[in-house]
Specification:
Number of strands: 30
CATH architecture of the largest domain: Sandwich
Radius of gyration: 22 Å
Shape: elongated
Number of helices: 0
CATH class of the largest domain: Mainly Beta
CATH topology of the largest domain: Jelly Rolls
Structural class: mainly beta
CATH superfamily of the largest domain: Exo-inulinase, domain 1
Number of domains: 2
Order of helices and strands: EEEEEEEEEEEEEEEEEEEEEEEEEEEEEE
């Protein structure tokens, strides 16, 4: 499809019509992708009119196969703390349940139903979003896996958006962004599990009903460091494929004596927790698993006692992903004399 002076690959069924006396393109559960663009640093400008209702207007950039950076506006919550979001997309999985707070969420008042001029500057590891000439969202750290790639505009959810006058230009000297500084991480009450040893992906059905870890699970492990707010993003290692959606995230806890310590933890979307191979917790933290407003974001709001033996103990989290972020985090309380890793 040729529009805005470029040849785009189309998904869904965009339509061209007039909106508020302007010829524009309506996207509804559809998108435009500029294949072969190999964009790294650039300035994007376009006009956007978001329809009222539950909808998401997204800018996707540095797309390389299943990895990308994504910035999007939530039509239905203008002015609320998460009305705009930045998240990396890793192995086909968006991480919006993992990356929250400063630098990832932003409260923006935007005029639903009215035209607004959007400008996104991408400069190295930083980005900045402006609406009608006003800077509204500083993104101090782009944390995806790609440095350049394709570009796409997409609209998903239950309503659509109108776009017009799309221009993408190389970053000029005048467009460079000032140095930004990521927010300081929050305080951690206890000893963070900084590195997890993660298995290959396997079907959730293999552990869904078991009280002990089965023998027929992947044996190899890959080290994965915790990042934003102490959360390890499991999608950095692999994606999911239907019901092949579960990994084991493990750490060895070496204790100087037999004891009980508390583990504060978080996860998404589902978890079964094993200590030395025996099940001690099972739970779900999915989007809308509590009520229609529940996001399923990852916080360390779950706690379980670990009854440790002297010497080595294996803590295993079998974490399954459905939608929105595949992660795990854990902090040990009263951990003196206890060595994780």
């Amino acid at each position: 499809m040729e529009v805005f002076g470029e040849r785009w690959t189309v998904s869904g069924a965009p339509i061209t019509a007039n909106y508020r006396n302007e010829e524009a393109l309506r996207l509804y559960q559809s998108g435009l992708r500029l294949d072969g663009a190999e964009l790294a640093d650039f300035v994007l400008e376009f006009d956007l009119a978001m329809e009222a209702g539950n909808g998401f207007s997204a800018i996707n950039f540095r797309i390389d196969e299943e990895n990308a950076e994504q910035v999007y506006l939530r039509h239905h919550i203008s002015g609320l703390p998460d009305s705009a979001q930045y998240t990396p997309v890793l192995n086909g999985l968006s991480g919006w349940q993992i990356y929250t707070g400063s630098g990832y969420w932003q409260a923006i008042d935007f005029p639903v139903g009215e035209w607004v001029h959007v400008r996104l500057v991408v400069d190295g590891s930083q980005a900045q979003l402006s609406l009608d000439g006003e800077t509204v969202f500083d993104i101090p750290e782009l944390i995806g896996e790609t440095d350049s790639g394709d570009f796409a505009l997409s609209v998903f959810g239950q309503t659509g958006s109108w776009i017009r006058n799309v221009e993408i230009n190389p970053l000029s000297a005048a467009d460079h962004l000032p140095d930004m500084h990521p927010a300081e991480p929050g305080d951690i009450n206890g000893r963070l599990i900084e590195t997890w040893q993660v298995s290959a992906v396997f079907p959730e059905s293999l552990i869904a009903e078991t009280f002990v870890l089965p023998d027929a699970l992947p044996e190899g492990r890959t080290a994965l460091a915790a990042e934003h707010e102490g959360i390890a993003n499991l999608a950095r290692l692999a994606g999911r494929d239907g019901d092949v959606n579960t990994v084991l995230a493990e750490t060895i806890l070496t204790s100087d004596r037999a004891r009980i310590v508390m583990l504060d933890f978080g996860y998404s979307d589902r978890v079964r927790v094993f200590l030395n191979g025996a099940l001690i917790f099972s739970g779900a933290n999915e989007w809308r698993s509590r009520d229609y407003r529940y996001l399923g974001t990852i916080t360390r709001s779950y706690s379980v006692p670990l009854r440790l033996q002297a010497g080595e103990n294996t803590l295993t989290m079998a974490v399954s992903e459905g939608f929105g972020g595949w992660g795990v985090t854990g902090v040990l309380r009263d951990a003196e004399g206890l060595i994780p890793g």
